[in-house]
Amino acid sequence: MPDEGDVRHVVLALRIAAGLVLFLLLWAWALIRYARGRRRQLRTLNERYRLLVENTSEGIMVIVAGKVTFMNGRASQITGFSPHEITPRALSEITRSHDGNTVKEAHRRIMRSEARSLRLPIRITCKNGETKWIHNCWVGITWKGTPGVLCIFSDITENKKMEQQFLQAQKMEAIGQLAGGIAHDFNNILTAISGYGNLLRIKTDNDPALNRYARNILACSNRAANLVKGLLAFSRKQVNDPRPTDLHDVIKGAEKMLRRIIGEHIEFSVILSKTTPVVLADTNQIIQVLINLATNARDAMPRGGKVTIRTETVENPDASAAGENGERKDGRYALLSFEDTGEGMDESMIDKIFDPFFTTKEAGKASGLGLATIYGIVKQQKGFISVQTNIGSGTTFNVYLPLVDTPVETREAIRLAAHLKGTETILVCEDETDIRNFIRETLESNGYTVIEAKDGEEGIDTFRRYRDKVALVLLDVMMPKKSGKDVYDTIVEIDPKVKTIFMTGYSADSLDRQGFGDAITPCIFKPIETDMLLTEIRRKLDEEKAVAGLTSQATGKD
After folding, report:
1. Can you list the alpha helix ranges (DSSP code H) found in 275-368?
2. Between 67 and which of 88, 119, 300, 304 could a Cys-Cys bridge form, CB atoms 3.0 to 4.6 Å apart?
3. In this predicted structure, what is the pLDDT of residue 105?
4. DSSP string for residues in 155-182
């Protein structure tokens, strides 16, 4: 039999073993509780991270070895691909070729730890073929034991569009400021050239050779003047004289000229709507639009084709027909469609055709202002323009001009030389000697007496001296010592009944910025045409006669 000591040892061992078992059970129970708690925490954390990753406004991708191995829901929304469609698609397959080298270089730098993170905008091609701009933040990570890149990106396509619109607006403003800056000096020069050219033309009627030279000088000066007008029209700073105008009358009046521009090798037709579209527009500028479109169509069909002009009345044109994101307004419009069967244009060209100086023609063949001028003119007339084209299927320009209910104005210009002559005395205040001499010779050759002044102060002194003889004062707006407006204010105090006409080489916008605005009306804008100068002078001088005639008719007096 075991002795008492052995029993005690066995009991003690059993107690110790029981204690250890109990301890182990308690420890296991604690570990299980801890593990369960940690699992709950991990599930909670995973759920939180999942919610964050899936509901963030940014797309998230993980790129390993150049392939996409993970993407969240927002990335799927932006690209159009579902996770199983894009993983493990190579990154280069969704990156536009324009940005392929940029992406490869960024990936290389991240993987070689040359940069901890990189931010860059790139273009991607979505599942539906749409191109989007995304802004990336790339960070180097380890994904499942393998080095990779975490790409967090946002869709900045709309921001890019707004940026492009802003840059376009800045470009237009820069062109406008440039045009306004050169317009004054350039138009002064052209006024002298065209003025003397016109005098030469008149005096060489009996000499065909010299007369042809004079006409060539005038044609070149007109081309130069149209170049400045094109710049001003694009920037919407050209002088605009909108009046209720029958669009059909404008097209009919320009039809013969358009046929000559387009050429005999191109079939030309005009299809006008049954209703008469009356628009509030400047007739000369609408003709300029037609000329530029005709020139563009002719150049697109060197081997012949067909040009068709159509008109119709439309109401609330939809965005797909009108184009012009955000610029279309509801209302009634006259639609002028100019169709050609030429070469057409691809998508990349459509985005640029209205940019200034953009042209597909050879260097020296075009100024690149034709379509830009059209764009500026149409905007100036409160309308909008869109283009429909495809390579090989021709091009259609749709010009939308707001309709008005106002009756069409008819103005009969005085063109007969006999009606433009006069015997009155005219004071000419002009600081440019060449222009002053041209005006003097033109007026004197038509029977007027001319007194000259080379600056504002001399103009005031001369008017004081000859106020009883002067029938009209011709004032340059900007002159040394005193401006034309200052001269006007002074001579009106001397004689409130004095007749004045302003003239300027500045654009209307430039005059507004300098504070002249409506204070200088009527105003002749340079370069000055001889007929226009004589017509405006005669009209101003005959104003009282016209008013008296109307009064006599109203009262029944002879």
Report:
1. 283-300, 319-322, 347-350
2. 88
3. 82
4. E-HHHHHHHHHHHHHHHHHHHHHHHHHH
Q: Which helix (H) or strand (E) holds 76?
A: helix 73-79
Percent of the chain whose predicted confidence (pLDDT) is above 70: 78
- Mean pLDDT over residues 431-451, rounded? 87
Q: How many helices (H) and strands (E) does the chain have?
A: 19, 17
Report the first-to-last Cα separation within the chain, whole angstroms.
166
Task: Provide the residue ranges of all domains of the chain, joining segments of one domain with +.
Answer: 59-155, 241-411, 417-552
- Distance, in Å, from the CA atom of 429 to the CA atom of 305, rounded to the nearest integer, reads 53
- Quick one: pLDDT at residue 118? 85
What's the rounded Cα separation, in Å, for the pair 297 and 268?
11
H-helix or E-strand spanning residue 520: none
Q: Which two tokens stand for residue 294?
A: 């005709």
Is the CB of residue 463 less than 8 Å from the CB of residue 499? no
* Percent residues over pLDDT 90 in the chain: 3
How distant, in Å, are the alpha carbons of 182, 251, 278 from that of 246?
Answer: 34, 9, 5
The three-state secondary structure class of 501 is strand
Same topology for domains 59-155 and 241-411, yes or no?
no
Which sign, positive or negative, has the C-alpha torsion 191, 192, 197, 203?
positive
8 A C-beta contact, residue 68 and residue 87 = yes
> Of 204-218, 400-414, 521-535, which gets the smallest average pLDDT?
400-414
pLDDT of 89 higher than 50: yes
Please determine, looking at this structure, whether the domain spanning 241-411 carries the CATH number 3.30.565.10: yes
Q: From the centroid of its chain, how far is CA 40?
A: 60
Q: Are 298 and 258 in contact (CB under 8 A)?
A: no
Half-sphere exposure of 495 (CA within 13 A, CB side): 17
142, 147, 148: which is closest to 91 by C-alpha? 148
Residue whose entry in the numeric block shows the structure tokens 């016209």: 546
For residues 440-452, one letter each, b for 16 or more C-beta atoms within 10 angstroms of the residue's C-beta and e for the rest, the string is bebbeebebbbbb
Lowest mean pLDDT segment, chosen from 49-58, 250-259, 312-321, 546-555: 546-555
pLDDT tens digits, 258-300: 888 888 888 889 999 888 888 888 777 788 788 888 888 888 8
| Architecture of the domain defined by 59-155 | 2-Layer Sandwich (3.30)
Picking from 337, 189, 340, the residue whose alpha carbon sits closest to that of residue 263 is 340
